[in-house]
Amino acid sequence: MNWKKVLTVVFCIVLQYQAKAQSTDANQVKFNFNYGWKLNVGDIEDAKNTHFDDTKWNSVNLPYAWNQAEAFKVDISHLSTGIAWYRKTFQLPKGTQDKKIFIEFEGVRQMGEVYVNGAFVGRHENGAMAFGLDITPFVKAFPEQNTIAVKTDNDWKYREKASNSPYQWNDKNFNANYGGIPKNVFLHIKSKVYQTLPLYSFLGTTGTYVYATDFDIAQKKAVVHVTSQVKNENTTAVKAHLKVSLKDREGKEVASFLSETITLAPNETKDLKASKAIQNLNFWSWGYGYLYTVTSELLVDNKAVDKVDIRTGFRKTEFKNGMVYLNDRVIMIHGYAQRTSNEWPSIGMSVPAWLSDYSNSLMVKSNGNLVRWMHITPWKQDVESCDRVGLLQAMPAGDSEKDVTGRRWEQRTELMRDAIIYNRNNPSIVFYESGNESISEEHMREMLAIRNQYDPHGGRAIGSREMLDSKVAEYGGEMLYINKSAHIPMWATEYSRDEGLRKYWDEFTPPYHKEGTGGTTHENVNGTKVADASAYNHNQDAHAIEDVVRWFDYWEQRPGTGSRVSSGGVNIIFSDSNTHYRGQENYRRSGEVDPMRIPKDNFFAHQVIWDGWVDTDTPKAHIIGHWNYEKGVTKDITVVSTAAEVELFVNGKSLGKGIQSKRFLFTFKNVTFQPGVIKAIGFNNVGKQVCENEIKTAGEPYALKLTSIERPGGMVANANDLALVQVEVVDDKGNRCPTAMDMIDFDVQGEGIFVGGIAQGPDNYIASKNLPVECGVNRIFVRATAVSGEIMVKATANNLKSDKLTIKTVQTDLQKLSSVLPSDNLPSYLEKGPTPSTPSFEKVRNSIKIVAVKADANQADAEKSYDDNEMTEWTNNEGVAKIEYELERKATLNQVVLKLAGWRSKKYPISILVDGKKVFEGITPTSLGYVTLDVTPTKGKKVTIQLMGTSKNSNDINLVEITGKVDEGGLKKGNSKMPQLPIVEVEFYEAVK
């Protein structure tokens, strides 16, 4: 090799980059600071010093968690912890001698001490939020070199230095511990008079706030406001104003306007405000991530000195009548409670921005409309991703499982303050979550005050899990169960947390997973063993059916069904997660997609039942399972559909109409497999075909098929970008073989590095170049190098035709102060289109108001049985279990809705009379909260409900908290020997005329 020639080329490249730095970087405000870091795992105290020799350390580009290779290989509690150091040398651009220099970390886990040129700058300790530091006094001007060193500590038991208090959310059950610097880092270069950054901790600044008011959705109008905090660090007073520009997604300027001019004294900070009424706005919506770029340019003496670009969208929200309104249309919450780490095998959470878009857009494509990030504040990259894909968000601050006091509560309020300031311009955030469990009214008032101070105009409700009788919270909702309200929205913060491995189709398909089988060796949070995990260990058939069954209870109480309604709920979780689990694998398998985001049958079931804002918009059908069984197999076939009726055909022969249950499930008993085509056809109420779905039998495995999923615009050669490479076993016609489990050997050559995927087996096959397909498909990661070129991927398997794939990588700016930001040029997801102007639901029944109540016993509590407060109830105590309601008018009642304490485990024998006529006698079913009883339509004004015997226990719904505690569903212990009828809420309905 001609080393002299190589060195000459390298020297020329360095000169080119240096020239670029000297000529152009002085005009840039924000830089990508992810490139050119060194990493050492272990504590070396001298590493903070400028002249420390780090040449033998590993070279990494951020984001990079030092233990990320363990993701899904080990149990969450076994993820490695300890001290790790990150170091980087860099030059500031020429012409920045008199500038302000800030560094922004999107997050460090758990603690990060920052040193610049050997001097201590600051210590961040909460492990969840972004933070910024003013490093102006510590850096050296061009052309001198600067050194930044960051000491990190991700100890599970880390305690705040000043108070010795632990952080409640640093928890081994849900907060996967990817240590070091797992998120992006940016450098900001500003003038001495500048718009501040939205980084309150350390800097004490609030940045720029963009919001809209005076919405006219129909006419596409709103008033856009910009408030920017400006600071003068000059020694003399200045006159300053803002020039605001609004550009649409194509980059066309649609409006510009000015603020007032103010005088800023030396070291003074003030807010500059500007606003303008804008027409022809495209409003951000579900599945319609329409974003504008708002540029606020700061002018001092009419000379531009600083600018801030904010990507945001405009949408109108309201939270009233027990419902959520988006752009004047009611939207029922149906989505996912997702772990904030949102991790992937071998990578953890440190993925490129486009991959966050890919994952989050799948939630939308499954017809989910909201993601509730669990327990801690989400990464800014995911927040911005949800903006682009049109996915509503519930943003927590930090919590474990309960309210706290003292310093631990102060930590939570500080985190909420910082998170609101940092994320208040992101339109996808519509809820702020103050706690993963109920908090006191005093604490709720504190959180509300923080929201009102820092985001008074953002159209976001603040509340907490539970908060069912709060006078302060703006939304609430339990975990697992259904709540209803006539005032603030109530939606379940998680439900249907059962688990199922994607590998298992059913008990008739190899490896023949029978319902309920799985490991029981895991420990609960409190250290007790999981004695029976069968209720949480499903195959794909059962898991998909369970998700539909659980959703039905929410759908039954949807908007349009009365004055008290449920606003929905979120399924836990979307993608299998390296967190608390109950099965044989060492990770959570509750996802609708597996860890590599390959869909399970649950995904397609949700596409069917969630296709709409409230009512389903387009009739759909999905046949659960496959059609490649062994000869002689006879099994029940289940179709998920929103049609009124479903007919099943095997090779063109009708098997008749399915047995309907839980509205969306249609079961066909004892269907015998015959190779060919199985088809489901859905019909509406008048017998017209409205949807269909079919599955064809695949032939014998013949070949492998490779496809890639890459960043839009091409894979970037930055030693950090990833491509998903999917491998399928297909027949000779290219159809996937759904029962194939072949072992695949991968070979990666060229400018790429094999990373790997996941499958059931030793160490979950993490980082293995040999791993099996499951249900005929699997995926691996390939990482780009820092050199543009081609990546060649080859997959081989015994007795199958191999396949090859070439991925081209594109050059990017890899300077240590890079001009290319991680999310640059990523497109928005607009497939669902703007918010429809039509109503989102059709009213299906009228509620009849109760005006008086008379109980044979415990009259003092009788009104609690219909007070729109689920924390109160009436029961008969020592007397007869009989209660009579007087209605506001005579009505022909056809339904009675009850929430009875012990709803998931108790069945009550009751009778119901209308004006003395018996309209119902029977046993109440179990549910997730409310039961709807169809009664003989009868006109009357007085309704009597009476217990006819002793309640019976039921195991129909098996729900156990992660603490190992069985939830009693509101049952209160008492000493009465009389049979009890505890009514939490009762409602009476007549049909819509």
Automatic annotation (TrEMBL):
Domain Glycoside hydrolase family 2 immunoglobulin-like beta-sandwich, chain residue ranges per copy: 213-315
The GO molecular function terms of this record are: hydrolase activity, hydrolyzing O-glycosyl compounds
Show where the Glycosyl hydrolases family 2 sugar binding domain sits.
Answer: 80-187
Which Gene Ontology BP annotations are present?
carbohydrate metabolic process
Keywords associated with the record: Glycosidase, Hydrolase, Signal
Where does the Glycoside hydrolase family domain start and stop, copy by copy? Answer: 715-806
Residue stretches making up the Glycoside hydrolase family 2 catalytic domain: 319-456
- Database matches in Pfam families: DUF4982, Glyco_hydro2_C5, Glyco_hydro_2, Glyco_hydro_2_C, Glyco_hydro_2_N
Tell me the first and last residues of the signal peptide.
1-21
- What InterPro entries does the record point to? Beta-gal/glucu_dom_sf, DUF4982, Galactose-bd-like_sf, GH, GH2_Domain-Containing, Glyco_hydro2_dom5, Glyco_hydro_2_cat, Glyco_hydro_2_N
Q: Which family does it belong to?
A: Belongs to the glycosyl hydrolase 2 family.
Its protein name is DUF4982 domain-containing protein
Organism, by scientific name, is: Flavobacterium agrisoli
